[in-house]
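re: ur question from the group chat, yeah i did fold both. here u go
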Amino acid sequence: MFKKALLGAASLAVLAIGSANAADLKDFRIGLIGGENEADRLRNFQCLVDQLPKAIGVEKVSLFPAADYDGTIQGLLGGTLDYAELGASGYAKIYLQNKDAVEPILTTVQTDGATGYYSIMVAKKDSGITKLEDLKGKKLGFADPDSTSGYLIPVTSLPKDLGGVAVKDFVAETGFGGGHENLVLEVLKGTFDAGTTFGSGVGEFKDGYTSGNLKKMVDKGILDMDDLVEVWKSPLIPNGPIVVRTSLDADIKTKFKDYMMKLPQTDPACFSAIQGGDFKGYTEVTPEFYQPVIDARKAQIGS
């Protein structure tokens, strides 16, 4: 935990370095939320570093990978980031602290046309856990306290499927895996008996679905879906938003939004890389789209 805190602090310090460029808009700063190997995140977003300067009229684009979700959230709240892709709960945290800090402008559309995804609880196939009842007295892992699918939705939705019993009263212990990828790896190691991650819910579980953390791990060759079973799937969750700093130059905002809307057609490989799987494209969103999640976060966590 102490090491994680140091990493988070270091990330914020690095983010602050870019703040001097905010006024002249020469450096467009992208925040990358934690939870996946840093080298993979940097590689997946390199296409934006290469393409965005010309597309939106800036001198350069910089990537700031945070150690956890909160590193990116604090960068957005502090105005040291210009764009990030968040989960709905991460956006809700920002909204509840300063609703004018960022604007949600776009979200992804699944291959079946849905604008939502699912929290997926998984366990090792040989664990004997196949249904929620098997979790009683076991250890349940969550991805990150600011994750929508990895924490907020499970703790608010699971009680309904547990006969009204709170998660903490049903399982013996809970903990955090340090992001979605690490969470699944810890389930495979046996650190947790089961854990919550996310997927599109479209396609087959055996493939990791069409997008989401499981699919990304399969594509990277670090997960064999034959080693896991699906224990629980949540109700549909609104896909997380692409957000931009509200005070960002209006012309930059317009050009960036146009670039992103066209990206699935102009560079499908880049679009797939930054989104981590197969999607149909983007659609516009407003804060109202996330109001149910904002309300859920306020009721459960407070901010």
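okk and heres the other one u asked abt
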Amino acid sequence: MRNRVLRRVALAVGALALIGATAPSVALAAGETSARKPTVVLVHGAWADSSSWSPVMERLRKDGYPVRAIANPLRGLTSDTAYVNSYLAAIDGPMVLVGHSYGGAVITNSGVSDPDVKALVYIAGFIPAKGETVGELAAKSPTPIPLVSTEVPDGTEVSIDPDHFRDAFAGDVDKTTAADLAAAQRPANTRAVTDAGVEEAYRTVPAWSLITRQDHAIAPDVQRFMSKRAGAHIEEVSASHAVMVSRPDAVTRVIEDAARNAR
């Protein structure tokens, strides 16, 4: 009896030793098949705020992506770039940097600040070259945006005339939601359109661009010109400038495509 008990104990110890020896390789295999998803960093543009990304954030989180939505100060391209750079420095691991509208100009400058930025995604975004301003690119669109201006201590702020907000910014969004967006829009300092770009992150970081074919804020042809010049992977959707509100599925699809394919 005693010999049988000792033999069982020896077998159990041997089994535990075998498990211990093989556990590291099992953990490594699991790590190889479940790589960490990059953090998606969302940068809104003028006349919006970070809450405009809410439908997109909901979908990204459901698919397992960590998400951050930056409150873009809209004080000017130079200072906004510095702000986003500091924000990116506080995030660990790989990132996909997403910019809507004027936010596209910001990520074009900020994308070179951190080697962990693995992809740029432009959502109806401005993509300036070095020395080019958002104002110069906006002037290429045939229909100017109806703006109202306000003098403030650090210059001039502009916002979209609320009576024309839906047509200019959110034509495919229901009237109530468009009215809420108009009321909550954040004005932008005119330096956002007069500061020149100083970096071209798309030269070294893979870029994707979603072009909005019903856009009255940045003409689709202007979006195509910028996207082709940047060498971006291009997708198109029939949507207004507020595509992250009206077509969040399309926006999410492009972001996740960039996340999967960027290295």
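fwiw on the second one: The longest strand covers residues 117-123. Confidence is low (pLDDT under 50) at residues 1-34. idk if thats what u expected
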